[in-house]
């Protein structure tokens, strides 16, 4: 009798366990119905913002996710990155970073509470772009040679605007000054759009900018591109010479953009985001949209993007130190 009771009890437990297994809801796949916040560390209208909104829009449209851009501008993009590093590593808070705030900012700002190679995980590279040196369409400068001649004739008189002190774009201007042997006056702004507006108004002589930030006004004929800083001409501006072609051999400066997440984000979430973003980058309409902004789409594995991040982080330490740029 006792043995029968044990048998009946064991059977009941087994049946109960089986029934629970059949009725228990499976864990929802990431991201499910929960919205994903995509932190944008710069103001609306700049290159980072444009690409972030394209990624957010397409992930929402194609995958039926809810991806919401959230602009957290300031301190050369480091405020937005700081917020991303402090977020829970769940995949529901990610960030669109770029070379400026990830690999240059840490060498400029004292006591940043994060290391990009330790406190973030590389998720998906999105695009890269050369920097463009441009001027208002009403400017007297028609070529980069005109700028160099004027700068040599009047040292310290020619001004250029950039999206911020110590950004890769500012440092591209600094490297150009060194290559040309001229002295320009750097005017830093809080983001690409304010610098662009002052260049159009003629308040600064030159604009040094990412192509995505400047492309709209270039296409509108209000901004005259003088040169791009990549070693090859941009496919978006094939008629615009490179700085190297303009007489400064081997000059090559470009920037890149990519999505990152807080360190500790599950590998499965990173893999999902990488796969879906890379799928978008293969789509004809997304490629066209990125090219329209003057950028070049480039998919990478998460590991490849991580290597790029670490390599550039080490490389730009020396460039920043040589520039003398500092931000207290």
Fourth CATH level, the homologous superfamily of the largest domain: Bordetella uptake gene, domain 1
CATH architecture of the largest domain: 3-Layer(aba) Sandwich
State the total count of DSSP E strands: 10
Question: What class would the helix/strand composition place it in?
Answer: alpha/beta
**Main β-sheet description:** 10 strands, mixed
Beta content: 15-25%
Termini separation: 83 Å
Total domain units: 2
Instruction: Provide the succession of SSEs.
Output: HEHEHEHEHEHEHEHEEHHEH
What oligomerization state is this entry in? single chain
Text of the CATH class of the largest domain: Alpha Beta
| Overall average residue pLDDT | 89
Helix content: 40-55%
List segments where confidence is low: pLDDT < 50 over at least 5 consecutive residues.
1-27
What best-fitting shape do the alpha-carbon axes yield? globular
Radius of gyration: 25 Å
Within the CATH hierarchy, at the fold level, what is the topology of the largest domain?
A: D-Maltodextrin-Binding Protein, domain 2
- Discrete helix count: 11
Organism: Paenacidovorax monticola
Signal peptide: 1-21
Protein name: Tripartite tricarboxylate transporter substrate binding protein
Keywords: Signal
Description:
β5, α6 (about 170-180) and β6 form a beta-alpha-beta unit. The chain has two domains: about 35-130 and about 255-325, D-Maltodextrin-Binding Protein, domain 2; about 130-230, 3-Layer(aba) Sandwich (D-Maltodextrin-Binding Protein, domain 2), CATH 3.40.190.10. Strands 1, 2, 3, 4, 5, 6, 7, 8, 9 and 10 form a ten-stranded mixed β-sheet that branches. The protein has eleven helices and ten strands. The protein is about 45% helix and about 20% strand. It has about 325 residues and is an alpha/beta fold.
